[in-house]
What we know:
10-stranded mixed beta sheet, 10 strands
Amino acid sequence: MRRHTLLTAAVCTGALALAGCAGSGPKAGSPAAELSVNGPYMPQPVSADMAAGFLTITNKGGAKDELTAVSSDAAGQVTMHSTMGGAMQEKSSFAIPAHGQLVFKSGGNHLMFEKLKRKPRQGQTVTVKLTFAKSGPLTVEMPVKSATYNPSTGH
Length: 155
């Protein structure tokens, strides 16, 4: 009888411990951002100290995220800019909608690689680290294209 009581108490204690854990983590099936990068490139810079970069970040997930920082060993700093009506404005972050895209293209949103440590040449690649508000960072190899490169994807 005593053994049965101890076994019942142990089972109940285990069940209570498990019940207490439910909800302490993310719910199964809860939406999350699913980020990927397509079409990255850098036109070969004409300046020795500055270059531009373009890419598309796609979010196939059910939650929005935000690009909060960009860095590269090739530059002293990388800044994010938007262009509207011909005016360029530095941005501290860009939203990436759920089931949407963030596009960096010539004449629009773009990355500026400032204080280049070396002038990237066509055929080389530049490593870029993208940092997000919620998702883990992504490291991208950005190929250097000709200064006049115009991708068929439109950016």
